[in-house]
Specification:
There is one protein chain. This protein has one domain. Helix content is 77%, strand content 0%. Helix 1 (2-20) crosses helix 4. The N and C termini lie far apart (73 Å). The protein has helices spanning 2-20, 33-38, 41-61, 66-75, 78-104. The longest helix is centred in the last third of the chain and has 27 residues, at 78-104. By secondary structure, it is mainly alpha-helical.
């Protein structure tokens, strides 16, 4: 009886905590084509540096930790992996876009 009560209390609590355990990464809004067109080479370089720093942060933060352990209980860690992948994909697309514009302007 005590075991059933303990399970009835712990399962919802663990499930609730695991939902809060999914990591999130604040993504940079993509600059419009008009904004990018007027940026100077050094501004494009700064944007590239920000994106590379963001990728480094995501890679460092996505190492296994206590939040991952909780997330595994709730969704087998899929939420964290999807969030990491989405953040990295977005940053890499932005880097590609910035590099194309930078090359088009003849930046060195």
């Amino acid at each position: 009886m005590k075991r059933a009560i303990l399970i009835a209390i712990l399962v919802p609590a663990i499930t609730t905590l695991s939902g809060c355990a999914t990591k999130t990464y604040e993504r940079e809004d993509a600059a419009s084509a008009k904004d990018l067109a007027v940026m100077a080479c050094y501004e494009l370089d700064l944007e590239l540096t920000k994106e590379r720093d963001f990728i480094a942060y995501v890679n460092k933060d996505s190492k296994f930790d206590a939040l991952d352990a909780l997330a595994i209980v709730g969704d087998l860690g899929i939420g964290n992996e999807l969030e990491r992948k989405g953040a990295l994909d977005g940053a890499n697309k932005r880097i590609e876009k910035l590099q194309k514009i930078r090359a088009g302007k003849g930046c060195h």
